[in-house]
Amino acid sequence: MPTGCTEMADSQTIVQVDSFTDRAFAGNPAAVCVLPGPRPESWMANVAREMNLSETAFLHPVGEAWSLRWFTPAVEVALCGHATLASAHVLWEDGLVAPEEPARFDTQSGRLTCVRAGERIEMDFPAKRVDTAEAPPELLPALGLEGARFIGRNAFDYFVEVDGEPIVRALAPDHSRLRRLPVRGVIVTSRAAEGAPYDFVSRFFAPGSGIDEDPVTGSAHCALAPYWSERLGRPALLGYQASARGGQVWTRLAGDRVVLGGRAVTVLRGALVGPAAR
């Protein structure tokens, strides 16, 4: 049986992958559990809490595709880029999908498809465009900001553009105040500094979802890609998420879809054993 599937009754393989990076201990770590079939939601939530990463992915085969769900240590989420990238990486690395074949995932956000493009993995995701929104009174103070160039919102998050990359990098939010906002998280972004090798920078805070700061957030780039493509006048851009770990996300706007590109590195293989595997 290929690595990644259940190997015995009391053992379940779990793989940890750093996404949106080409080196270990950078980018965004995700755990991936490739299962032979569905498992109870309570078990998946327990495993995600045990792993204590921003997301743990659970997938099992369904026809030509793979059912895919994502859990933070606190909640299930409807869309996650870095754990999808990690899942595709594991399927190809373990021979569960042929190298030339796409990895197809059925999720709460519809069918997501990943393909190999040289050294990168490219993911076809829905664009999550941002509409102008009035900021709740606590939003900017919680971020430590006195003002913003733009404030918006989509189905998932608040979206804040500030005046420059140094402001994004220096943010030290009050996570207890952000936690009270009725959204998944808050994206803060700006144009890249002059001469930078990327086009825009961002950070993502989601304490209400159990993640004070996510290192590199693919799903946030579903909003960042259309926003900056329209302002910079180019469909293909490179974003840098300026967390402590940091990571690059290649983006390409394609109508109501966004192609997100990144690399991935396996850093750990282990097994849930005994009662933990069941």
Report on the architecture of this protein:
By secondary structure, the chain is α+β, with helices and mostly antiparallel strands. It has two domains: 122 residues, Diaminopimelate Epimerase, Chain A, domain 1, CATH 3.10.310.10; 125 residues, Diaminopimelate Epimerase, Chain A, domain 1, CATH 3.10.310. 18% of the residues lie in helices and 40% in strands. The chain contains six helices and 18 strands. It has an 18-stranded mixed beta sheet that branches. The chain is globular. The N terminus is likely disordered.
Question: What brief labels describe this structure?
Answer:
single chain, 278 residues, alpha+beta, Diaminopimelate Epimerase, Chain A, domain 1, 2 domains, 18-stranded mixed sheet, 40% strand, disordered N terminus
TL;DR?
The chain is α+β, with helices and mostly antiparallel strands and 278 residues long. The chain has helices at residues 41-51, 81-93, 139-143, 165-170, 175-178, 221-232; strands at 11-19, 28-34, 55-62, 65-71, 76-77, 103-107, 110-117, 120-126, 131-132, 150-153, 157-161, 185-191, 200-206, 211-214, 236-241, 247-254, 257-262, 264-273. A hairpin with a 4-residue loop joins β4 (65-71) and β5 (76-77).
